[in-house]
């Protein structure tokens, strides 16, 4: 059995539990690619990605916050980096659920992804780019 078959079985199980297990569910990077449509207004990712309204997002999962070169971050996000903020999966969950609540004074004008599974999927997608 391949790893992805196993994962599909696991995902099906999580679905049957109607979200009870979703906090532990793996994201689906392919679904995350569709979710990225909501981000691509401001962000690029992949080969040749450049900073736009928001910074390019290659390698962002696990990296220090506000560390993309050549992007002018808000004071709030620069300060968060100095205080040690790293984009762990947990922090990305919290930020993407509600950017303004996570970071007062941040500049990401995005309402947030309220669906936990969507956040799992987008984080899995982001993690495929080094
Ligand atoms: C309306 C434009 C906009 C949209 C839409 C948007 N972002 Fe952002 N994003 C920004 C800006 C601007 C920043 C920089 C924030 C700051 O400096 O406070 C940012 C910062 C980030 C960061 C932190 C990057 C770093 O280098 O620390 C991540 C991660 C991120 N966005 C992910 C996403 C994802 C994933 C989506 C889609 C679900 C998304 N953003 C949607 C504008 C946007």
What would the keywords be for this entry?
130 residues, mainly alpha, Cytochrome Bc1 Complex, Chain D, domain 2, 41% helix, globular, binds heme C
What topology does this entry show?
Blueprint: H1 3-16, H2 29-35, H3 75-82, H4 89-97, H5 99-102, H6 116-126
Helix pairs in contact: 2-6, 4-6
The structure holds heme C (HEC).
**Percent of residues in beta strands:** under 5%
Total helix count? 6
Mean pLDDT: 88
Q: Mind telling me the C-alpha Rg? A: 15 Å
The name CATH uses for the topology is: Cytochrome Bc1 Complex, Chain D, domain 2
Strands, count: 0
Assign the CATH class. Mainly Alpha
Give start-end ranges of low-pLDDT stretches. Answer: 13-24
By CATH, the architecture is named: Orthogonal Bundle
Which overall shape is indicated by the principal axes computed on the Cα atoms?
globular
Element order, helices and strands?
Answer: HHHHHH
| Coarse structural class | mainly alpha
Portion of residues within helices: 40-55%
Number of domains: 1
Structure commentary:
It is a single chain. This protein has 130 residues and is an all-alpha fold. It has a single domain, classed as Cytochrome Bc1 Complex, Chain D, domain 2. It has helices at 3-16, 29-35, 75-82, 89-97, 99-102, 116-126. It is globular. The chain starts with a helix and ends with a helix. Mean pLDDT is 88; it is low at 13-24. The structure holds heme C. Heme C is lined by residues 38-39, 41-43, 53-55, 57, 60, 65-68, 73-74, 76-77, 87, 96, 106-110, 113, 122.
């Amino acid at each position: 059995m391949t790893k992805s078959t196993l994962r599909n079985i696991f995902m099906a199980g999580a679905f049957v539990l109607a979200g009870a297990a979703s906090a532990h569910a793996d994201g689906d990077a392919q679904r995350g690619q569709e979710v990225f449509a909501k981000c691509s207004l401001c962000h690029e990712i992949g080969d040749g990605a450049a900073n736009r309204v928001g910074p390019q997002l290659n390698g962002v999962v696990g990296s220090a916050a506000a560390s993309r070169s050549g992007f002018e971050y808000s004071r709030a996000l620069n300060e968060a980096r100095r205080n040690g903020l790293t984009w762990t999966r947990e922090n990305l969950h919290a930020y993407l659920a509600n950017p303004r609540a996570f970071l007062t004074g941040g500049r990401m004008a995005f309402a947030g992804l309220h669906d936990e599974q969507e956040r799992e999927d987008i984080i899995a997608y982001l993690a495929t780019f080094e």
